[in-house]
Amino acid sequence: MNPMIEKRLIALLGVLMFVIHYASAQQGPNDMDELTVVKCTDFEVTGLGEDPQWEKASWVNLTQQQTQSPYATRFKIMYSDSGIYCLYHCADNQIHATLQGNNLDLWTEDVVEAFFWADETVPVYFEYELSPLNYELVLLVPNYNGNFLGWTPWHYSGNRLTRHAVKHETTGDNQETLIAWWAECYIPFELMKPMVTKTPEKGTYWRANFYRIDHDNPPGMWSWVPFEKHFHEFRTFGTICFR
């Protein structure tokens, strides 16, 4: 090959590799992980997603990560002028939950979780957990380069209170066989202040992820967007778009 042509090809290849690398860096790891959040009016939470407004939202499957559980997990999400609604359906044959109280270490037992990172200018996000016994863990989490710890709500009352309910789905002649559990919750925007300064509107984007932990044998961990080591990898969260 002509030396001059060879040099030009090498130079062109170098430019091409730079362009590909730059485009990949600009795209980020989660640009394809986007979920539309439909709007609803406020309603009562029962634990079974019985309100007809849930028909507006589609089921989203959570993917099992690093485990071999036979169970499936799915969830729905909507929002109103006052807050966010989440609904989980967790296939399960046995409940592993003993903690009797709110804001305990619920993640050490069976649990579903939702993480919302509304303001990407600060490394602070909102974490919500709900157990099969209908106890909750509510946290605002500052996460500085992997160093994180949660803060529980202050003046947690009135329009800052969540609403949540759990139901166990059973079968058999005496309804003695567990086949799944449901978790439904409402998280008011007032509780997320000052991270959330105004109600999301059509076209608003947040970062988020959704999880489940199950302690059967074998145990299971599920997420909407994959994680590498733990649930608090907030910079790899997916994107939810309010419609």
Overview of the molecule:
This protein folds into two domains: 1-31; 33-242, Immunoglobulin-like, CATH 2.60.40. Helix content is 10%, strand content 38%. The chain has one helix spanning 3-27; strands at residues 34-39, 60-64, 73-79, 83-91, 111-117, 124-130, 136-144, 147-148, 163-171, 177-188, 205-214, 220-223, 238-242. It starts with a helix and ends with a strand. Residues 9-31 have low confidence and may be disordered.
Extended strand count: 13
> What is the overall pLDDT average?
89
Poorly predicted sequence stretches spanning 5 or more consecutive residues: 9-31
The residue fraction in helices comes out at: 10-25%
State which percent range the strand residues make up. 35-45%
Shape label: globular
The level 1 CATH classification of the largest domain is: Mainly Beta
Q: What does the radius of gyration come to?
A: 21 Å
Count of all domains: 2
Order of helices and strands: HEEEEEEEEEEEEE
Please give the largest β-sheet.
6 strands, mixed, barrel
Quote the distance from N terminus to C terminus: 57 Å
Identify the CATH architecture of the largest domain: Sandwich
What is the structure about, briefly put?
The chain is mostly beta strands and 243 residues long.
Search tags:
single chain, 243 residues, mainly beta, Immunoglobulin-like, 2 domains, 6-stranded mixed barrel, 1 helix, globular
